[in-house]
Amino acid sequence: MTCPELECPLDRFDATQSSTFSSSKKNEQLSIQYGIGSIEGIYGQDQVCLTQTHCVPSYTFGLATSTKDLIFKPTTRDTNTTLQSNGIFGIGNDRLSPNTPFIKQLVQAGVMNRAVFAIRLGRPTGGLILGDGMMDDTIEFEPVLENAYHYWMIGGDTIEVVAGTGSSVLYRHSFETMRGVIVDTGATLSYMDTTVVEDILMRGVGVSHVVLDRMSGTYLIDCQQLESDKKVEMVFKGGYRLSVPLKDLVIQQQQEDACLFGIAGWLQNDNNNVTERMRREGWILLGESMLRSSYIVFDMDNQRVGFVSEKRSSSRGSSRYMVCIKQVAMVTMIGIWLSW
């Protein structure tokens, strides 16, 4: 059984072209529900290489036979897009997987000395950096929570909107109890309680410049906010302050007069069990919109997440640890799957 063309419209993995591929011995079925989208499929094993020297000899990965809301055929509006996501390279917390995750298997194969990796989402360049060659004293770490439910989840204390100089706080919301904050590089938007999002918009943008799309829970704002000098800042349990320029949260839409705001509220009564639980728990999900101004380090060995601001990390990513991955979305979930 292969994936229908409408659900897997791009290039596919061809097992007949691999001399090292083997199908799953138990014909195990694959079923994953993401925050947005889902896949069904089967498992296979093969040598998986990120470069000629970054290989795991026999890795179990997924082959999608059906996808929903994950892979889309390029349209005429995508003429400036050079890469299309055609699968997921999961690098989630190893607590999430019943098997040894890819990063730790690289350590077992002697390719890396520690289960540490970093992701840089900054524009125009970004990438995945493997190993501890990037580790230094400029990285500020936050511990993964004990009850993190297998996510890269750290503790959130306060969220603020500040003026450009940082001297004037326009809005501050201190959570009564510590909030779980999921660091998810695979999500485009960031999500939190709707009331908090609307307070951020009121103080940062102005209510007269905001339109709510009730179907998606997203907000459209005036594109002139690209010139704003305000910042949205989140203070974590360990004291690190993630500072995000408001203009980084303004996402331009092709052929649209308004722009999309990079933070959305959780939808109530969402049919997706994953996002509905996140809403009920009061969790916050930090996606690309709030992470692209930072360089993020994930330390599996010590169960912690580190941050360096984009300005301080501008010299990073030039070492032999940099890996460029084409046509596969890097997300902080677990596992690897491709179209079949």
List the topology elements.
Blueprint (H helix, E strand, L loop, with lengths): L21 E2 L5 E5 L4 E12 L5 E14 L18 E5 L10 H7 L7 E5 L6 E4 L9 E4 L9 E10 L6 E15 L6 E3 L1 H11 L5 E4 L4 E4 L9 E6 L4 E5 L4 E2 L7 E3 L1 E3 L7 H9 L2 E3 L1 H4 L2 E6 L4 E6 L12 E2 L5 E3 L2 E6 L1
Concise summary:
This protein is mainly beta and 340 residues long. The protein contains 4 helices and 24 strands.
Explain how this protein is built.
The chain has 340 residues and is mostly beta strands. Helices cover 9% and strands 39% of the residues. It has four helices and 24 strands. The chain is globular. The N and C termini lie close together (8 Å).
